[in-house]
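Weekly puzzle thread! Below is a chain. First person to post its structure in C-alpha cell form gets bragging rights.
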Amino acid sequence: MTVCESKRDQEDDRTLLRNFLEQKACWVRRETLHIHQIAPATRIASSLSPVEIFTVLYYGHLLHFDPAIPYSADRDRLIISKGHGSVSLYPILADVGYFDKQELKRAGTVESFLGGIPDPMVPGFETVNGSLGHGLGVGCGMAVALRHTKNPASVLVLMGDGELYEGSVWEALLLAPEHKLDNLLLIVDYNKIAMLDYCAKIIRLEPLGNKFKSFGWDCEEVDGHDVEALHTVMQKLIKRRNGQPKVLIAHTVKGKGVPLLEKDSLCHLRTMSGAEVQAAVEALA
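Winning reply:
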C-alpha cells in the first residue's frame, strides 16, 4: 500500500466515523425530545446541548465500559455533574445495553427508574447528580483512589457552565493540579446560559480557558457539536498523562436542534408542548 492509499483509507475511515456519529447524535436528540414529551418536567434545553459529547464518548470508543458488568473495576468513570441536563444519556445507555429500550417509553413516570434527574438507580450512572457543584470533587476523589490502586482507568466529569458559580468547584480545581491528577478529564458544557439568563449577564466567566490554565490545568477548547473535532481532542486528552488534570471547554448551544429553545435566554425552564415536540422531531428527521 502506498502512502497516498494509506492516507486515503484514513480519510475514508474518518468520514465513516463522522457520519456514524452524526446519525447517532440526531437519533439521540430525537429520543430526548420524545422523553420530554412523556415527562415535561425534564430540562430539555440543558439535555440537548451535551448530545454530541455523550454520543462521541460512547459510540466513538473513547470510554471503557461493560453494560454486563456496570461496576467493573477497570471501567472508566463518567460523572454527570449537571444532573438536570443529562436526560439525553438515557437513550444511549439503553442503546448500548444497560437496560431495555422499552424503559424509555416510561421515563419520568412513577413506574420507571428513569427520573427527571438521574441517579445511581439508573444503570450506567455513577453518582447522585441533583446538587450542582459536587461532581468535580467526587471525580477528584475517584482519580486519587484509582491512582493509589494503580488502576489505569480514567475519570471524566461533565459540568455545566452555570455550575461554575459554585465555590466547591473551584476548591476541586485547586486540588486536582496539586495532586497531579492526569487521569482526570473535566468537560465543560459551555452553552453560556444559566438557569435565569445568559452567563455574561450574571457573572462573566471569560476568559474561562485562562482561568483554568492559571490553576494548573491542561486546557483545550472545541466546538461541542462537531463530532469529528470532539472525537479527536477527547481521544488525545484521555490518553495524555503529563502530570496535569485536563479540561475541555466544549462550546455548545443550549437547546441545540430546536430553534425556539436556542433563541430563548430562559430555555432552561421552558416546557415544550406536545405539538412543539412533534414539530421539532419532524424537523430533525
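Puzzle host: Confirmed. Bonus trivia for everyone else. Strands lie at 77-80, 155-160, 184-190, 218-223, 246-251.
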